[in-house]
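Exercise 7. Given the encoded structure of a 322-residue chain, write a plausible sequence.
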């Protein structure tokens, strides 16, 4: 019995050692993201980093959201429309908004804040590889408004990429990967690109806080307001660094969500507040009220093959009609 105990302890020690080696390798890979060197990243490392962003958004929303449903219920119609329009592109309607507020009461501001931050952070960084670019003469504020925060140059680059994909998908991904790797190489251009990415993170954070989100954030003093902005900007900065590294790979990324909930979906899970246990089918086939977090799905390999196969890097989190 003693020998068996010793063998089990040895196996545990070896398992813990391997787990620690994996953790160190993952952290090392992401510490080297800012270099221009292109190297494939393991799916497990990518998923771990994206889960950290998910947790960061959840913590930020929980820290600064109103905990009073009446704040949202008593908004005038034009303010409600402002919130709904911010989330309409991921499926939120006026009826869905009312169902969330009436059904989730004091959790409604928290859920809506999570949805707004996640949508903006994930779509900008993991759906549009050139969103941070600006022309040489642009200061970063000339093109910023309440609707669009990308420069005309960034939009043109994205449109070119989309057009190339229609002609030759594989070569389009090679072009995108090569272009972003060159921009990430050392030298004056790389310094400008770093500044552009910093500017994009700060700009997006300001736009969100000044947008519909402001209707659901609790009042804070000047110092805490600064910390609130800086912590949100930090989340965007982390996301843009991760996405910068991922877009230099030949793997293609798409962001999206499903319109109806399926218990056995490979890309969608119900929000934790709905307490859906494994095997629980009570919400299967129900309408999705809100996409709290879009999914990030990868296609293809680091060598530019198998674009028809997908891997889920981050699952979509949804609020399901009950």
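Solution.
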């Amino acid at each position: 019995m003693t020998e068996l105990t010793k063998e089990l302890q040895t196996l545990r020690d070896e398992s813990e050692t391997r787990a620690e080696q994996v953790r160190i390798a993952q952290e090392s890979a992401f510490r080297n993201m800012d270099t221009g060197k292109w190297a494939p990243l393991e799916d497990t490392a990518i998923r771990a980093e994206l889960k950290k962003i998910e947790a960061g958004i959840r913590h930020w929303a929980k820290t600064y959201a109103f905990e009073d449903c009446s704040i949202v219920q008593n908004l005038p119609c034009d303010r409600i429309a402002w919130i709904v329009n911010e989330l309409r592109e991921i499926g939120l309607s006026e009826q869905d908004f009312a169902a969330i507020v009436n059904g989730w009461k004091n959790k409604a501001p928290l859920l809506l804040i999570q949805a707004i931050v996640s949508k903006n952070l994930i779509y900008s960084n993991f759906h549009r590889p050139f969103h941070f670019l600006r022309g040489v003469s642009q200061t970063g504020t000339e093109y910023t408004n309440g609707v669009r925060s990308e420069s005309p140059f960034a939009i043109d680059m994205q449109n070119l990429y989309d057009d190339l994909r229609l002609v030759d998908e594989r070569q389009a991904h090679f072009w995108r990967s090569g272009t972003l790797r060159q921009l990430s190489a050392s030298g004056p251009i790389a310094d400008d690109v770093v500044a552009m990415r910093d500017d994009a993170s700060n700009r997006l954070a300001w736009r969100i806080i000044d947008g519909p989100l402001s209707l659901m954030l609790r009042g804070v003093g000047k110092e805490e307001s600064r910390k609130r902005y800086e912590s949100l900007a930090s989340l965007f900065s982390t996301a843009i660094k991760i996405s910068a590294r991922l877009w230099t790979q030949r793997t293609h990324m798409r962001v999206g969500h499903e319109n109806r909930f399926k218990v056995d979906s490979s890309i969608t899970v119900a929000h934790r507040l709905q307490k859906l246990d494994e095997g629980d089918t009570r919400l299967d086939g129900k309408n999705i009220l809100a996409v709290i977090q879009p999914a990030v799905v990868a296609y293809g390999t680091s060598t530019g093959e198998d674009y028809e196969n997908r891997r889920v890097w981050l699952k979509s989190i949804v609020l399901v009609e009950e």
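Remark. Residues 37 and 185 are 7 Å apart (CA to CA). Students should compare their own answers with the one above.
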